[in-house]
Design goal:
heterodimer; A: 334 residues; mainly alpha; ABC transporter involved in vitamin B12 uptake, BtuC; two-stranded antiparallel sheet; B: 265 residues; alpha/beta; Rossmann fold; 2 domains; four-stranded antiparallel sheet; globular; binds adenosine-5'-triphosphate; binds magnesium ion
Amino acid sequence: MDWGFIFERSFSAMIGPEVVVYAIAAVGLNVHFGYTGLMNFGQVGFMAAGAYGVGVTVYWLEWNFWIGILFSFVYVAVLALLLGLPTLRLRADYLSLVTIAASETIRLLARSRVMKPYTGGVEGVNQFAGPFYDLSPFELGKFYSFGPFKYLGRDVWVLVVGWTLLILITLMVRQLMRSPWGRTLRAIREDEDAARALGKNAYFFKMQSLLLGGMIGGVAGVIQVIQKASVQADTFNPVITFTIWTILIVGGPGRIWSPIVGSSIYWTLIVFIENTLRQLPPGVRSTLEDTVQLSDFNIAMLRFILVGLGLLLLARFRPQGIFGSREEMALDRR
Amino acid sequence: MTDGPIITATGVVKTFGGLRAVDVDKLEIRRNKITALIGPNGAGKTTFFNLLTGFDQVDAGEITLDGQNITGTPPHRLAAKGMVRTFQLTKALAKLSTLENMKLGALHQRGEKFWQALIPGLWTRQERDIEARAEAILQRFNLTHMRDEFAGTMSGGQRKLLEMARALMTDPRVVMLDEPMAGVNPALAQSLLELIKMLPAEGRTVIFVEHNMDVVQEISDWVVVMAEGRIIAQGTPAEIKSNKAVVDAYLGAHHGEDLSKVELA
Ligand SMILES: Nc1ncnc2c1ncn2[C@@H]1O[C@H](COP(=O)(O)OP(=O)(O)OP(=O)(O)O)[C@@H](O)[C@H]1O
Ligand SMILES: [Mg+2]
């Protein structure tokens, strides 16, 4: 087994583009769920709206890439309003139903034949991110190494921009949550009626939270499609939403650094497990092939199963997540 | 308007299915007085509170606050107009500290506006003032030692105290307390009574629901009796104590129960 290679991959995954994209999306979900108690089961829908915001503008309208980025915010905001206006006055479960349905609707619409002129259909939109990479100070096709980390120049550029955004967004959310605005969100999370009795327009605050977290999800979507250099409907499937939930819960909801650390742990594990499985000594490998029908194909599955096992252990031994406090968790049961 | 009733309810009806939970022809609440709302379980007291505070919508009728029609006004607007309530089932915000619970109560906070929240310089001074006020009220309610604890760690009685203290942070003109004494130990209950008694002098009207008749006798200026959604009697505590209809309403509601449990003397 080439442990050097496994570790190089794992280290690079630790702060890689996936970590950034998923951490940003999880910051948005943290605003929703961690701080406001909103059950958003369609965070991938906001990512898709952001992604197609750029994609559609560039592909169909043939407008400038940067204008597309601005437009992506508009799309996401419209989506948040559409989802929030009818549901946020209702019981909490309605939002979860509507968000998961909306995220699937967006994906299916985007890949449908009817929408092909606008979204590129199943093929999606490709080769639109040129203007972003034109600004790169790194040589796009060259490998760069920093200690144990090794990336292509184009990814280094994505990482520089992505991490900067991630840190800025995190600090902004931290500032917000330390303010009376954030206090009101947390109060609404604990008991909406108590907040209303004290003069807070809970509906309005929940709408603001949905918008903010959705926009942050949109940013994640934009970074993702820039990194992949394509907008593909099927990359925005519900599994993404649940991965984001996993990341948030691993870190601990309602904690400011949870999304980053959760995302980093998640992706490091996935890459570590995958590469280890691929590099098993031939004896072990053939045993596994015979007993559990291990193949290159189902290694991809197996790594999720193993991560799921890890999650079970986490739920058993540290249900509050990495940053959560057990005392706080215990309050739920009083 | 400085005299006259602060709240009026006229023809207020609320039904749940076939049940007329509230059916109040006319009720006037006197300004800067303590009014007790009593009645057997299920009489409609909490529902009536919900209607007055905008947590529930009337089927018919009109409610005014200081002469202004407030029927259908949502709770947060009413709070801004100076009307605040507490809940029969206490609503401490468990994962906020006691101090945070208190500070939440302050109205018109600049830092509650999204864009201003981003710039602490715009609200830290106001926040300090709010904090000072919160600490003063916590002191009055003997909760200073809980200041930095999660409200979720409080006992049931402490939560009742916190909820009332937090309500006062809105600087209300009308304080509506749904069973503020329930579950509070007798020693604490006595100090809570003293605190309630002080409110009219600060220019606050108090309406409270209570089952303990000793408490009602001790602090209220006026007693309103509800049964099966209707107001069956009202008067001074002494009048109510000797009112046969009231005694019957309680006895009727407690028919077949151990009479020593009936709290009306
Ligand atoms: N949301 C609701 N749906 C259906 N029925 C309700 C609802 N809320 C209250 N009721 C009914 O209305 C009646 C009045 O209830 P309410 O809670 O107002 O009584 P209460 O006087 O506060 O009683 P208690 O002293 O036990 O608190 C009861 O019969 C109750 O079952
Ligand atoms: Mg009640």
